[in-house]
Amino acid sequence: MFSEHGESTEDARRTDHERLPTGSLATDGEERPSWESEWCRLAYWELARRVGRQHGVRVRAVDVFGGDAAPGRHGLCLDALHARNDAPQPEQVRKTRAKIGLGVTLSLEGDGVWLYNRSQAPVFVSSPALDAAAARALLVWRVPPAHCLCVFDPGAPPAPAALALPHLGPVDPRSVRISFAKGWGPKYSRRDVTACPCWLEVLLAPPS
User: Fold this and answer.
1) Is this model's pTM higher than 0.85 or not?
2) Residue 3 falls within a domain, yes or no?
3) Rounded to whole angstroms, how far apart are CA atoms 123 and 93?
4) What's the number of domains the chain is made of?
């Protein structure tokens, strides 16, 4: 997977073994009862505020990118979300969005869901698939530019049942969180993903 573009899973590095609670910040009250043929939904966040609605994904590979730095690409364009949202942006959000560029590609393959980092800055990932042995304390992995990582393996041990965390409320274990350019965890000033300027939540479809 993606071997022609860059290094594979073993080259993605954990960020000093930061450990974080599992789950999802989910929907902001938005209910979508049927998954139909979607294999995931994407929600883009800036700090603790979601920007735009969920983006359902039915194609096997989807791009998430900053803007017109990638003419002709299809997927979730973060600049287009802001064109429909005139809320003021903090300076740290503006600076981080400027680094997203070509962003990431998420691809549904036979052996799982893969992320490929096309941007010029690292991305940071927390996923139930990355640390099955530590079900309630997932690692955050650093994925450098031009590297890829399997962010969900359907053959891995099942994720724990949904939890309720005091600072997040109900959470979803079938959730992958991807922060652009900025990491988070106990050794960062950003202790939680909601402190990251620009990040993406991937909500995986429930098992059939």
Assistant:
1) no
2) no
3) 15
4) 1
